[in-house]
Each structure stands twice: as structure tokens, then as C-alpha cells.
Design brief:
By secondary structure, this protein is α/β, with parallel strands linked by helices. It contains twelve helices and ten strands. Pathway: Amino-acid biosynthesis; L-tryptophan biosynthesis; L-tryptophan from chorismate: step 4/5.
Length: 278
């Protein structure tokens, strides 16, 4: 019997979590909460508007820990981090809500979104329509669908549920086969290429560059994971990739927003402030 990969372990636990949550709060109750939530802020539109200007469209991630690195940030106050990112020039936020493997929480998404005006994606392992409705009830503006975690029928079902509750969808791929499935199954404009292999957790920026020629121009490519310095940013920009999802590089910095500005908008200079998070 083969040893389960990290992704397989996460998905097995996620199925248990969905069962536990749906036993506590019914889908009908969640749908009522979703209808009462603040109007979506337009996640895809915000990225598209920035990319049209050939300016970095940064999805800045709020992430306390990961399976490969353990705790990444000890001083973890989502509202403060969100404000710092907004000031530093982020276009959108990504908030980890997975509890068991990333030490995330639903409340972190709510706190971050309430602290700023940026659109927010719920970063989690979505496998069930329940989680999609739950995301909207929490106030999310977008959800992540990971092709490696879903078959085509479920992927299409989750995207349809997302559309029904007013959520944008970011579909994430890791290789050519997944890209082909995503393009065939979903019409979302947002295609994320994760440079981290979710089975081994190794990172290679060439993943984005290799897949780029196969992605139609009308889709917006978001490069995810492994962007650590200006050279990485410039490598993507000369290839016409202007949208980035970055977490760890910011989370390890004393001031996440200042690090965002240093990495993506160096011409603005780095803000000077007494606060470690401003």
C-alpha cells in the first residue's frame, strides 16, 4: 500500500471536516447567511483592471503556517496584516481557512475583510458545495478550486454553485494535464499556476513559464508560490505575467505590506513608520 501524499491526507481530513460542519449548521442555514452577507467586491475585476495597466496585481496571502514549513508567522493578527497589505499596494487578499494543516480559521477571513476594502479569496481545499456556500456566508469574494483535488464533474458543480452565490472562481493547476482539464471544464477568467507541487511540496517557477503558451490570452494567469525576490518578479513580467499570489515572503517580513511594496513597487520607496505592520 502506497503512503498517502500530503494532498491526499489533507483531502481525507477535509471530507471529515465537511461532514462535521454540515451536521452542526445545515446547508439551508448557510444559504440564508450567504444571502445576508456583504455584496461581493469583485475579485476577478480588481485583478483584470490592474493587469490591463501592466501593473503588478498582487494577491497577498494571510497564512500562519504550512505543512512544509510549520509556523511561518508568530505575530499573527489578520486585521493588522490586511491593513498593511492594503497600504503596501495589494490588489486582493488570500486568507487560509484550513485549520488542521495551515492553522487557519474562518474568523481570520472575516477579520481581514472587515479591516480593509480589498476583495478576498477563501484559500482552502474545496471539495463540496457546502464549502462554497459557506465561503460566501463568511464574506468571501472568490473561492479556489484545485484541479488536483477534484474530478471534472465535481469541479463544474462547485463552479456552478459559486456562480449562483456570486463568487468568482480561481482555478489552480500544476501541470499540463490539469490545465487542459481546467480550460475544458471551467470558463472562469482566473487561472492560477501553482509552482509548488502539491504532492511533494517542491517549488519550480518554470512551471508557470512552461504552461503559459497553452493558456488563452483572454484568461488571466496568476503565478503562485516561489516568488521571493525582484528577479522572480521581473522574470514573470517580461513573460507578460502580472498577477501574483504571494504569501511566505511577506509573512516572514516584520512588515508584510512594506515587503510587498519593496518587492513589487520599488519605485515608490519603502514607507517609514513606527508600526511594525504599517
Amino acid at each position: 500500500m502506497s503512503v498517502p501524499t500530503v494532498l491526499e491526507k489533507i483531502l481525507a481530513r477535509k471530507a471529515e471536516e465537511v461532514a462535521e460542519r454540515s451536521a452542526r449548521v445545515s446547508l439551508a442555514e448557510l444559504e440564508t447567511l450567504a444571502r445576508a452577507a456583504d455584496a461581493p467586491r469583485g475579485f476577478a475585476r480588481a485583478l483584470q483592471d490592474q493587469v490591463k495597466l501592466k501593473q503588478p496585481a498582487v494577491i497577498a496571502e494571510i497564512k500562519k503556517a504550512s505543512p512544509s514549513k510549520g509556523v511561518i508567522r508568530e505575530n499573527f493578527v489578520p486585521a493588522d496584516i490586511a491593513k498593511s497589505y492594503e497600504k503596501g499596494g495589494a490588489t486582493c487578499l488570500s486568507v487560509l481557512t484550513d485549520v488542521d494543516y495551515f492553522q487557519g480559521a474562518d474568523a481570520y477571513l472575516q477579520q481581514a475583510r472587515a479591516a480593509c476594502k480589498l476583495p478576498v479569496i477563501r484559500k482552502d481545499f474545496m471539495i463540496d458545495p457546502y464549502q462554497i456556500v459557506e465561503a460566501r456566508a463568511l464574506g468571501a469574494d472568490c473561492v479556489l478550486l484545485i484541479v488536483a483535488a477534484l474530478d471534472d464533474a465535481r469541479m463544474a458543480e462547485l463552479a456552478a454553485v459559486a456562480k449562483g452565490v456570486g463568487l468568482d472562481v480561481l482555478v489552480e493547476v500544476h501541470d499540463g494535464d490539469e490545465l487542459e482539464r481546467a480550460l475544458k471544464t471551467l470558463d472562469t477568467p482566473l487561472v492560477g499556476v501553482n509552482n509548488r507541487n502539491l504532492h511533494t511540496f517542491e517549488v519550480n517557477l518554470e512551471t508557470t513559464l512552461d504552461l503559459l503558451p497553452r493558456i488563452p490570452r483572454e484568461r488571466l494567469v496568476i503565478t503562485e508560490s516561489g516568488i521571493l525576490n525582484r528577479a522572480d518578479v521581473e522574470l514573470m513580467e517580461i513573460s507578460d505575467v502580472y498577477s501574483f499570489l504571494v504569501g511566505e515572503a511577506f509573512m516572514r517580513a516584520e512588515s508584510p505590506g512594506s515587503e510587498l511594496q519593496r518587492l513589487f513597487f520599488p519605485e515608490r520607496g519603502v514607507p517609514v513608520s513606527g508600526s511594525t505592520l504599517d
